[in-house]
């Protein structure tokens, strides 16, 4: 099945219309897809982890903070054999240390191990990342400049979102927020709409707080974010963490996949991480390890 036909099927599902022809696709999109199809792009392979909550402290409830180091080591062996193009960490890399100095030490420890796995890495900000640190301190610790941005790889468009903003638009940082008050800021939302408009490539989004639920784990203004995704017509899937358990919803033809937290449970059988392959036609296959579920979605 060619690219044009695949996109047509997605449009069909979105609109709920029984009639579809190539003319239903905007000319610019069609041209881009055609060019993309001619480029014989390769599949993109991504290693995914979330909610590591690393801290050198005893377990609390089901969270085994110190064991994250061993679990990440196990994941790194799998990644070494699968050779992902890049890694994405979906937030809460660290937990919430009592002092900035201690937190920076924990961040350095976990990120040194994480950075050794793969040269290219992307970090989604989690609420815990900026519980003790400021955004600037966290980003400096992982050698990144921006908390939200996009990039292209092999004909796929990727977006990293930051939902660590309070309802009043102020950035989270240094215990100035309540974790249930998660928002995509007005400025970021405007950027997102423009970014989605500027690309006609199949798009995959990475987030921490959930964009598919309206409970405490959900981003408060996630309906606006989903609307932007749906209007673009290009978003295939959203990957998120935050609620620590496997979950999958489909809203407006887009998969919202929540990944298992690495920090949950003792022993390597409780680990959670996955390797995702995105084919040029938008087919997504996720190989989950330990507690992480596996999925395969055709376009
Ligand atoms: Zn978490």
Automatic annotation (TrEMBL):
Pfam families: Metallophos. SUPFAM superfamilies: Metallo-dependent phosphatases. Residues 45-245 form the Calcineurin-like phosphoesterase domain. Coiled coil: none annotated. InterPro entries: Calcineurin-like_PHP, Metallo-depent_PP-like, TAT_signal. This is Metallophosphoesterase.
């Amino acid at each position: 099945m060619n690219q044009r036909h695949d996109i047509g099927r997605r449009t069909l599902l979105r609109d709920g219309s029984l009639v579809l022809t190539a003319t239903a696709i905007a000319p610019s999109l069609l041209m881009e897809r055609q060019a993309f199809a001619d480029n014989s792009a390769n599949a993109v392979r991504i290693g995914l982890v979330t909610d590591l909550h690393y801290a050198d402290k005893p377990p609390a409830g089901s969270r085994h903070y110190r064991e994250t180091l061993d679990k990440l080591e196990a994941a790194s062996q799998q990644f070494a054999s699968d050779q992902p193009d890049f890694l994405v960490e979906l937030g809460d890399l660290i937990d919430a240390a009592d002092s900035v100095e201690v937190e920076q030490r924990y961040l350095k420890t976990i990120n040194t191990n994480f950075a050794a796995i793969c040269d290219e890495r992307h970090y989604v900000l989690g609420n815990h990342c900026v519980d003790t640190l400021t955004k600037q301190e966290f980003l400096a610790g992982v050698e990144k400049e921006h908390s939200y941005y996009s990039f292209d790889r092999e004909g796929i468009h990727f977006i990293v979102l930051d939902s660590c903003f309070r309802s009043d638009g102020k950035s989270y940082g240094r215990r100035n927020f309540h974790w249930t008050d998660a928002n995509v800021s007005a400025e970021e939302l405007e950027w997102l709409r423009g970014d989605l408009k500027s690309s006609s490539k199949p798009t995959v989004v990475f987030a921490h707080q959930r964009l598919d639920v309206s409970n405490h784990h959900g981003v408060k203004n996630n309906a606006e974010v989903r609307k932007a995704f749906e209007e673009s017509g290009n978003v295939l899937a959203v990957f998120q963490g935050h609620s620590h358990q496997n979950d999958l919803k489909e809203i407006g033809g887009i998969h919202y996949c929540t990944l298992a937290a690495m920090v949950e449970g003792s022993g390597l059988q409780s680990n959670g991480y996955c390797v995702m392959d995105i084919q040029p036609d938008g087919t997504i296959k996720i190989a989950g390890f330990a507690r992480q579920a596996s999925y395969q979605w055709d376009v």
